[in-house]
Design brief:
The complex is a heterodimer. Chain A is an alpha+beta fold. Chain A is about 45% helix and about 10% strand. Chain A has helices spanning about 5-20, 25-40, 45-55, 55-65, 85-90, 95-105, 145-155; strands at about 80-85, 115-120, 135, 140. Chain A is elongated. Chain B has a 7-stranded mixed β-sheet. Classes of the chains: A alpha+beta, B alpha+beta.
Chain lengths: ~170, ~500
Amino acid sequence: MAFKLSAEFKAKADKLCAKYPRRDAALIPLLHEVQKEQGFVAEEAMDELAALLGLPYARVKAVVTFYTMFNRAPVGKYHLQVCRNISCHMAGAPGLLNRLRDKLGIAEGETTKDGLFTLSAVECLGACGAAPVMQVNEEYFEKLDEAKLDALLEDLKHGRLPGRAR
Amino acid sequence: MPKITIDARTIDVPKGTSVLEAAQLLGVYIPRYCYHPRLSVSGNCRMCLVEVEKAPKLLTACSTEAAEGMVVRTDSEKVKAARRDVLEFLLINHPLDCPICDQAGECGLQDYYMDYSRAKSRFPAEDKVLRQKRRALGPHLVLDNERCILCTRCVRFCSEVTKTSELEVMERGDHSFIDLKEGKALDNGYTLNIADLCPVGAWTSRDFRFKQRVWFLKKAPAVCLGCATGCLMEAHYNDNTIYRLVPRPNAETNTWLCDRGRMTYKAAAAGDRLSKGVIKNGLIDLEPALREAATRIDEAKDAAAVLGSPWLSVEDNAALALLAGGMKTENYCFDFKFETGIADGILVNKDPSPNAAGAARVKAASGGLNFEEFLARLSGGKIKLVLTEARAAGLLKDALKASGARLIVFANNRGEIPAGAYATLPYASYFETPGTFINYQGLERRTEPVVQAPEGVKPLWQVVNKLSAYSGASLRLDSAEDALKGLDKK
């Protein structure tokens, strides 16, 4: 599968790189750009980015694998990321995770057959004050309980992502 | 010049010296995994923690610069406790592999465990995080990620020395491991240095794995004859067999050793090693082979020629020069001009032969033709027979073919014999006999015998001596040094 970064992307990349003293410093913002466009960071994209920034491939791969927010495979339309760290855990995250597993019929790291949902358990989302927290794509949903979770799932199934207008 | 006190001893060190290096100057060894004198400082293993007066906590000796008036303790209880704890962390997920691990006996974890810990593990074996076990990565190495302590010496070696940057630490935390691009091989010409660098059993040499337990190995200094760089190395051997070659770091030539150089020991024990003479394609005992060669040399009279070899020692070239004198031929040549210099920016030389400078020394004493003249005489039909070493014969390849001159060569292995050689005489390799070589910088390199030659195989100067006796140009050499002395008399 040949993968090429578009000329448009490259123009954007040049602008981003110019913001930093070193070209390779733009790696993380560019990875975010790739993920925004493609939904995930493919191996081929890592190759292309490495060439674009003059970095060894292994360096790009190391950065992508270090940060869990970079998806390395396509995810569903909604990426449900349930925090499993201590505050959320104590406030009921395991129950939420179980409910999601049951309702969606998938395990962590899997995507539903209709391609709508991907379920992940993630490390601290930095919103302990509002535990338990789940991140859906870029949005946080806080102080969740089972009822709120069910309502949210219904909304998502009908294509409505509540919260900030996107 | 900051003055620093380490374990109650004081030393002046150049500015920029780290505490670890300063301690080394005093003979105080500070344990380390990630620190390596020829790589950048990483400071990740935490094994070199020391107590520095007025510092609020322990500092890593490798990344702390020695400062004026600094007072360091490397042996306090606090330091020992810290090292024990660091080691405990490093061992949490380390597999219980020691009995089947090839690193056992030369493993940093085992060594420091004996020095600092000797504690029973507080982590049950079944709780260990498992990682990928052994897999071949490239032609020379096996990687066992489960044994890795993530010191990143291999990562830094590939980015700083070979500048190929294949390796990186992937993932995060407990899940971290060393890897390279999927489907790629680790093959940059210097990969076996990684097996040496690795302080644990994560990287091991495919060639050396399970051939020998390291505590049985004896060590002898050796010299690499793979090219004109003349790297110093150490041969590890046991029971008359060499098992591996490792670098003997020195300021003049090498810290590392290239993969090709490390494999040069193989020829000495290869299946095609010659222990008898060869006439055309048939094996024949050495004596009749020598007689036959001598007869042909006598037959050719002054149309016989001797070509020295930049792959032979100074002594053996000298013996060949004396033989040429005895044969009363003007056709001899010890003139080899190769472009020299480091070709790849690391170790490999543009000159593929180890001793062109040594041959030049023989030429200075004995005279002889320039290589071009020799070639011209051969092509012009003035030379009917050439006596030389197998690889040097390769330099004459086309001229030999065109002129149809008879070729008698000295060779270690059957695979070396050039096509069309009339006779081949075996000789002892320089792992089996002493010899002097001069590298591209003009530095003298002396090889010492590590193992014994196959039965009946003699050093080249002895073969030449016998050849001279059979051909009536008797040299009466008693030692390699005799050949040198004979040359000086000329």
